[in-house]
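As a warm-up, study this chain.
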Amino acid sequence: MLFHNHHNNDTTYTHNTQETLNTQTHIKSTLYILDSFFLSLFLFFSLFSFLFFSYPFPVMTLQLFILFLFLFIYFLYSYHI
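Now compare it with the structure written out below.
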């Protein structure tokens, strides 16, 4: 009887672990997509920065902000437990 209960608990635990893993995978893929988006934005601004010289807002500041976001998400994604 005890063994039987233990076995059931084990199955539940395994199921929960699997759900947690699925959630983590989902989070990771979302972060990865976000990261790719920010990186492409950054590259876009870097490559076409000469187009934005006539605009009043500071492109370099925007670029640094995007780079910061990219790195922040990258570290979240890399060290996400």
